[in-house]
């Protein structure tokens, strides 16, 4: 029988006084939403958006990054991002793998705040944000980055780039203390991933010429599934950052959807005006830029502000992608950003961070737990400059460290950043020994004998003769049977010849 002291200890662990079950439930739900944005959201979005020969490689880059980030996160990276002070831009590294480090009340020591749920919940919630940042970066490197180089890049960039931005802005670092606002990752996640995508694409080099000229999506329906998961998953992305099931969480979710809808419509309008046709891929880009732009401001602006954000995010990144991205030599010859991460995340992230300096409200900041007296519309013009300083730090840090990591992989470790030309020509089968959409299994040792094959041919001929009221003679070729596509033998065969006006007609298949 347990002693009174043991019973008290058990009670303190199962229902501690600091635990708010609603907050804990919402935080775990929000974290799961964000995890689904990566796996499977961006996996299937990328897999459908690229050419068929790159579907597996694109999804695998996402899948690998998600797993690797988690292992690094719990061994050292979480504490670099949210641990005790070590430097103005980094916490002291260390593991979070003991029971004491995960079951007690969540605490961000450098920021001086605590949450009403266990540390384990905070660790997982922050992990899914770190993971999606690496998954976003992958979008700029698709269709030519050496997979081994990517395997090395992920833990290095997480440690030296992501963790620094997270600690500086969220964990209690110098930008946090200056008062830079980044509600849910406009700078930490999107500006950093867009900048890393830009810099890394320059180091890796462009895709093959014919891949750049013809990069049609292989599965638009699959792409739309990923886009839908991304949009709805953003309710957890922005709604989870008050660290509570609070009124401000509801404001963040509503504003997120308003901006996204307006941005999608504006991007579509731009496509119609300039290209005379609405594009589903364009609409997805508009959706993404809206989600990115509202992220640094979601819970601190009004609904009217969210509409303004949407108009800006649906037009300015459109100009960046469709004019600058197609005309500037920098993008046409040097920086081949496969999925346009530079435009949808770097440009849109910087735009959203700047706009929050203009449109942040005093009430929204208070509801989020900030002491900032709003933005320029509330008379605090200083906030605009603070946002610019934060953006410049994130851009500069990521340009330098992404380049250093790429040089380390290439020149120190001697691992090529690019696939060989042969691998780029072949794609998934050369890199992973697999192909997307495999409909046939070829199993050795099950080929029928000649006698069995002959009997099968005779039986099929008799069946066909009984169904052929016109009495046509059917000739079966054994190789056609082996392939399952006998030309005339099977009624309903998709390759069967039909007659039209007395003449045989071939039915063409896509």
UniProtKB/TrEMBL annotation:
Protein keywords: Ammonia transport, Membrane, Transmembrane, Transmembrane helix, Transport
Origin: domain of life: Eukaryota
Localization terms from the record: Cell membrane; Membrane
Region (Disordered): 487-510
Keyword Transmembrane attributed: yes
Transmembrane intervals: 25-47, 59-78, 123-142, 149-167, 187-205, 217-237, 249-268, 280-298, 304-325, 346-372, 384-409
GO CC annotation terms, alphabetical: plasma membrane
Biased composition (Basic and acidic residues): 495-510
Ranges of residues in domain Ammonium transporter AmtB-like: 25-437
Molecular-function annotations in GO: ammonium channel activity
Record-given protein name: Ammonium transporter
Organism of origin: Acrodontium crateriforme
């Amino acid at each position: 029988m347990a002693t009174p002291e043991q019973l008290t200890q058990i009670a303190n662990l199962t229902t501690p006084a600091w635990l708010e079950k609603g907050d804990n439930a919402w935080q775990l739900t929000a974290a799961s939403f964000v995890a689904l944005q990566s796996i499977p959201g961006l996996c299937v979005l990328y897999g459908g958006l690229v050419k068929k020969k790159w579907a597996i490689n694109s999804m695998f880059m996402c899948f690998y990054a998600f797993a690797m980030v988690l292992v690094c996160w719990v061994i050292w990276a979480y504490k670099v991002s949210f641990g005790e002070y070590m430097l103005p831009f980094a916490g002291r590294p260390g593991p979070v793998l003991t029971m004491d480090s995960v079951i007690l009340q969540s605490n961000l020591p450098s920021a001086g705040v605590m949450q009403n749920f266990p540390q384990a919940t905070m660790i997982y919630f922050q992990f899914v944000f770190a993971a999606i940042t690496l998954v976003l970066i992958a979008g700029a490197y698709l269709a030519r980055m050496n997979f081994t180089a990517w395997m090395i890049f992920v833990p290095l960039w997480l440690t030296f780039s992501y963790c620094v931005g997270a600690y500086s802005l969220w964990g209690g670092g110098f930008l946090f203390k200056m008062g830079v606002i980044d509600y849910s990752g406009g700078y930490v996640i999107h500006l950093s991933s867009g900048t890393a995508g830009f810099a890394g694409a320059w180091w890796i080099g462009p895709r093959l010429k014919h891949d750049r000229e013809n990069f049609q999506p292989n599965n638009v329906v699959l792409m739309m599934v990923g886009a839908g998961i991304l949009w709805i998953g953003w309710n957890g992305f922005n709604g989870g950052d008050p660290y509570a099931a609070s009124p401000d969480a509801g404001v963040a979710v509503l504003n997120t959807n308003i901006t996204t809808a307006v941005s999608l419509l504006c991007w579509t309008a731009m496509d119609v005006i300039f290209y005379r046709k609405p594009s589903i891929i364009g609409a997805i880009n508009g959706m993404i830029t809206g989600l990115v732009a509202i992220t640094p401001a979601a819970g601190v602006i009004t609904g009217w502000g969210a509409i303004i954000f949407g108009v800006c995010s649906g037009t300015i990144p459109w100009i960046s992608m469709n004019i600058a991205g197609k005309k500037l030599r920098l993008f046409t010859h040097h920086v081949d950003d496969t999925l346009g991460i530079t435009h949808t995340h770097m440009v849109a992230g910087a735009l959203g961070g700047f706009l929050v300096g203009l449109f942040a409200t005093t009430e929204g900041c208070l509801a989020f737990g900030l002491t900032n007296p709003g933005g320029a519309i509330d008379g605090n013009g200083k906030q605009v400059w603070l946002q610019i300083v934060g953006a410049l730090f994130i851009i500069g840090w990521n340009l330098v460290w992404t380049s250093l990591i790429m040089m380390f992989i290439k020149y120190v470790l001697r691992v090529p950043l690019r696939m060989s030309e042969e691998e780029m020509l072949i794609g998934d089968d050369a890199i992973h020994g697999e192909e997307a959409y495999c409909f046939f299994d070829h199993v050795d040792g099950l080929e029928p004998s000649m006698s069995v094959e002959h009997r099968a041919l005779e039986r099929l001929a008799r069946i066909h003769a009984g169904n052929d009221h016109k009495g046509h003679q059917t000739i079966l070729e054994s190789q056609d049977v082996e392939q399952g596509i006998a030309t005339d033998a099977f009624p309903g065969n998709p390759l069967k010849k039909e007659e039209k006006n007395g003449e045989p007609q071939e039915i063409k298949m896509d």
